[in-house]
Automatic annotation (TrEMBL):
GO terms for molecular function: ATP binding; glutaminyl-tRNA synthase (glutamine-hydrolyzing) activity; transferase activity. One of its GO terms (biological process) is translation. It comes from the Bacteria. Keywords: ATP-binding, Ligase, Nucleotide-binding, Protein biosynthesis, Transferase. The keyword Nucleotide-binding applies. This is Aspartyl/glutamyl-tRNA(Asn/Gln) amidotransferase subunit C. Its EC number is 6.3.5.-. It comes from Epidermidibacterium keratini. Allows the formation of correctly charged Asn-tRNA(Asn) or Gln-tRNA(Gln) through the transamidation of misacylated Asp-tRNA(Asn) or Glu-tRNA(Gln) in organisms which lack either or both of asparaginyl-tRNA or glutaminyl-tRNA synthetases. The reaction takes place in the presence of glutamine and ATP through an activated phospho-Asp-tRNA(Asn) or phospho-Glu-tRNA(Gln). SUPFAM superfamilies: Glu-tRNAGln amidotransferase C subunit.
């Protein structure tokens, strides 16, 4: 889909297939129009973007709020592990999810 091309019904049907979405004929027509509007809006934003404005992830300055680490009383490890469904060598035992060692 080039910038100057119109989004076709085939484009929408192909995208729906890739996304594994089941869409009706009416929805294909509706989505084609909506995608046209979205792409036109994105193109307008691209026209406005100035080279002297750095890219940013937020529109306001962000500051992480953190607190200092302090040692505090916590639960006893043996008590916690005793309540766990499975424990081994002083740690929680969980099912393997990767085939890696």
């Amino acid at each position: 889909m080039a910038d100057s091309q119109k989004i076709t019904r085939d484009d929408v049907a192909h995208l729906a297939h890739l996304a594994r979405l089941s869409v009706t004929e009416e929805e294909i027509d509706q989505f084609a129009g909506q995608l046209e509007q979205i792409l036109a809006s994105v193109a307008k934003v691209g026209e406005v973007a100035a080279d002297d404005i750095p890219p940013m992830s937020h529109n306001v300055p962000m500051t992480n709020v953190s607190r200092p680490d302090k040692v505090a009383p916590s639960l006893d490890r043996d008590e916690v592990l005793a309540a766990a469904p499975a424990a081994e060598d002083g740690r929680f035992r969980v099912p393997r999810i990767l085939d890696e060692e």
